[in-house]
Amino acid sequence: MSASGQAAPTHSASGPTIALVMVLVIVIGGLWSLDLFLARTDREAVQTQANHLDTQGVQLLKQGRARDAVELLRRANSMVRDNRTYQLDYVAALAAARKFDDADANLKTLLETDPNNGPANLMSARLAVAEDHIPDAEPHYHRAIYGAWPDNAPEHRMVVRLELVELLASRGEKEELLAELLALEGEAQGKTAILKQIAHLYQVAGSPARGANVYRELIQSDPDDINAYEGLGGDELALGDYHAAMAAFLNANRRSPGDRTIQRDIALLNAMATIDPTPRRLSSAEKFARSTEILKLVRDALNGCAKTDDARGMVDECDKVLAKKAPVHVTNELAETRLALAEQLWQARIKTCGTSTSEDEHALRLIMTKLAHS
Length: 374
Hints:
The protein is mainly alpha-helical. The chain is built from 17 helices and no strands.
């Protein structure tokens, strides 16, 4: 046979081989596509089921059924591990069910991988508060304030800072509270309701002058804001400016005649103005008389709840001082001595009876606070 005759069979054999390879490629590609399709379908089914479980769990949580919610949310979280919403919902259920150790562990894992997560840090702060670990809560509040939020970050940060200032106010941490209020005031411009909260809390932080400034700005924006006039009057009262306080209360009263709250404010102002021993215009005799009246009021306040021998002993010593006949010529120093004794008794009253006071003691409390800062 010729060379050309021998090559023909070889050429004809390669055709089926190439065709077979092409068929195999097509089959493998089809199987791969089918596998991808099935995997995607499976993932979608898992995601749908997890989403359903999460929705049910959140509903149960809102209904106060935390223990029932935990299992559903645990399953949703285990089915889709990288979903932050599921993770946080699960932690919320654990915390609500008072499973604090499990909630802590899950939050710690989440924050290790995403330390700047705003919602997770807020939840960690709230969990620390629930467990009464306040020193651990404050750093998480700050990380939540400056952390990342999925949407509307400025609004979330303001809400978190408000929650923090309420916590600080409840604990009497005045310096920290003042620092947070200053930052919050800058963020809350134009938000009347929040600015009123800030103004009120400035007095709690021991800075009624700042609160008065906020109320003046609110009045400038709305001259008929009764609450702002009342708040301004309260701050002026705390500052000892009775004339300005009365002007503010009368402005409120003109806009809401007969309002009982405003009437109480005016009565409180009159009561304070009657016993306040600090005005410079007072004569030595008048200051001594007012100091004596304050000492009697503080004695009565302590005597009303004295439960210890030390407290009763202080009341007895005060009675001896008050029983002494006043000298014919009283001096400023004698008045100051009585005020110093009144402050000692007032501190004993706070230690023995707590910081809360009755409505009858409101004027006295404000006077004692003023004396402590004068």
